[in-house]
């Protein structure tokens, strides 16, 4: 078995050597003759023609000195500098003359433009013709603009007049009931509806809690130093009902509400009143209940008795009797 392996290795080595030899031989065969022969041999040196070229057309190597090149470069630089100096010397006067001419030309133009608009007696015809031509152009433009804008202006005026008429009619329609409202006269009060909001036994109503509640219910401090409820929630318009202090003198001091205390407050509404009396009474009754709930009090009628449903019906009948 070992002999067989040795034989195979020997045969493989021979095969590899044969392949390498064949490869080198084929490469050597494909190369041209010029590469096979060295150009540096004495034979090639002897085979040069009269001009110094060999059989392949290659000449002898030439050595160029650096000093000669530097000298030629210096000479060329010197000639260029001389040329530049001559050009600058010859061109400077011309440039100065041109610059002088350029600086003078704008002054001549300025002087001409200054002379043209002057009103002199030498050319009166020209001075008179320019305004005439301008006036002609202006009149033509004005007439053309008038012819174009005339229909537009008429249409706009018609629309404006129609709009003004409609606005005046609407203003009159709105102003009619407003003018009629001030003419309404209530006359002397015939009845007064009274509600009391009192604190519980042994307690008091504090101004620090009362004032925010009144502002929430749209009360406004006003005449007679008491609070009023107006037609408008903003505190404008006629007074619907009012609220006073139950303790004499019956007034409030808004600046000292934090130190203010009382046994109760009185809400009252006179009949007849402005607006719907039933609606005004409903607002007053709801306000009284809200104050009682917020401050921990209770609602009483005009005689300081407990508020009942029968009492409410009695107040409604009094309102309807004067309606």
Automatic annotation (TrEMBL):
A Pfam family it matches: ZipA_C
Membrane topology (UniProt): Single-pass type I membrane protein
GO cellular component labels: cell division site; plasma membrane
Localization, UniProt: Cell inner membrane
One of the protein's GO biological processes: FtsZ-dependent cytokinesis
Keywords: Cell cycle, Cell division, Cell inner membrane, Cell membrane, Membrane, Transmembrane, Transmembrane helix
Ranges annotated as spanning the membrane: 6-27
SMART domains: ZipA_C (SM00771)
InterPro entries xref list: Cell_div_ZipA (IPR011919), ZipA_FtsZ-bd_C (IPR007449), ZipA_FtsZ-bd_C_sf (IPR036765)
Domain ZipA C-terminal FtsZ-binding: 189-319
Its job: Essential cell division protein that stabilizes the FtsZ protofilaments by cross-linking them and that serves as a cytoplasmic membrane anchor for the Z ring. Also required for the recruitment to the septal ring of downstream cell division proteins.
Subunit structure: Interacts with FtsZ via their C-terminal domains.
Family to which the UniProt record says this protein belongs: Belongs to the ZipA family.
Listed NCBIfam families: septum_zipA
Name this polypeptide is given: Cell division protein ZipA
Origin species: Shewanella pneumatophori
Protein encoded by which gene: zipA
